[in-house]
Specification:
Blueprint (H helix, E strand, L loop, with lengths): L11 H5 L2 E2 L8 E2 H4 L34 H16 L12
Antiparallel strand pairs: 1-2
Length: about 100
């Protein structure tokens, strides 16, 4: 079973100590009592590649209905320049 969540879980022990909801029980039932907790990964279903140069991350910019397309493109290019300055060495944004 996979569990995804946002919160204050920082370790396997934190997960093991999560209490489950059980009706008609007087003592708490923890995840450690009903499961073996271990690190793993989700099944991979695909990858995005760029020009046979390896894997990349992708994003889509969508324009709101009625917006000025020239202004949207200008704003996106400006934002890409700002973001590029904050990225680690070797990481690049390449719009296409």
């Amino acid at each position: 079973m996979y569990i995804r969540s946002e919160g204050l879980v920082g370790s396997i022990t934190d997960i093991e100590n999560i209490s489950t909801i059980q009706r008609n029980r007087t003592t708490p039932l923890f995840i450690r009592d009903i499961a073996e907790v271990k690190l793993g990964h989700a099944t991979r279903y695909g990858a995005m590649c760029y020009n046979d140069e390896g894997e990349v991350s992708g994003a889509i910019v969508m324009m709101l209905k009625g917006a000025n397309s020239s202004q949207v493109i200008k704003n996106v290019k400006e934002r890409i320049e700002q973001i590029q300055k904050t990225l680690p060495e070797g990481v690049k944004l390449k719009p296409f």
